[in-house]
Amino acid sequence: MVAEQTTITTHQSRRLTARVGSHTLRQGLSLIVALLLVALVALAVYRIQQLPNAPIVVNPTGLSALQYHQLADTLGTQADNNVLQADLPSYLAQAQTLDWVAQADIRRDWQQGLQVHVVPRQAVAKFGSEHLVDATGTVFAPADSNDLNQPYWVRLQGEREYAAAMLQQAKQVTDWYAPLGLRLQEVIVTPRLSWLLRFDNGLRVLVDNERTTEKLYQLSILLQNQLQPQLAKLQTIDLRYKNGMAVTWRQPDHAPTSDAAAKDSGK
Prior knowledge:
Helices cover 39% and strands 22% of the residues. By secondary structure, the chain is α/β, with parallel strands linked by helices. The protein folds into two domains: 56-120, membrane protein fhac (Ubiquitin-like (UB roll)), CATH 3.10.20.310; 123-249, Rossmann fold. The protein has a nine-stranded mixed sheet with strand order 6-5-4-7-8-9-10-11-12, with helices on one face. The longest helix has 48 residues, at 2-49. The radius of gyration is 39 Å and the shape is elongated. It starts with a helix and ends with a helix. This is Cell division protein FtsQ. Keywords: Cell cycle, Cell division, Cell inner membrane, Cell membrane, Membrane, Transmembrane, Transmembrane helix. The chain crosses the membrane at residues 29-48. It comes from Faucicola atlantae.
């Protein structure tokens, strides 16, 4: 009995020793693997930090020469960091500081650096004397001041906050008055929200901020019917009345003075 117990105890001791050795080996291997991973990560970080600063490449598609150079001057030709660590949101914010930029996109390219693509705003009207406005009603300063001299279809004047409403009204008026052969040239909104519309034949229309669209539409119908024979004689139409309107007629051409007539007759 004693001999049998001694044999069992010795066997258990050997098994316990084997287990302890196996566990120690696994711990050692895990530690070695962890150290290798840490070393690899550290090496990767070091190699990334040693990469050169990324070039900034502006895609010229859709840009004028001045827009391209203005954008390149704003962003610079080289980033402050490599292609993986460059702060894209900061460069995106810089591009969007340019008034004429409608959309901007910056992407990382391992071969070429930071790729910049910009969509410029497309002007549809003038706004004041120094700005343009796009189809969304956004007022912006063009990259090229010569763009202010382009023959846009209408000029808007007023506070920027009313630009979208002015543009929408101008589009409607253009459609309504086109059958009369009238082309809208200017829309002015005063601080008191009175509207002044000028047409290419010299006609001026004044209207307040109450039922503005309705009044302008009704006037277009009236001009195409009852007032059409008098259209050439109309100088100003004032719609700022609850019931009706006020009309100012063009002054007839003055006959030549007697002195002028005498000079003409003496020729």
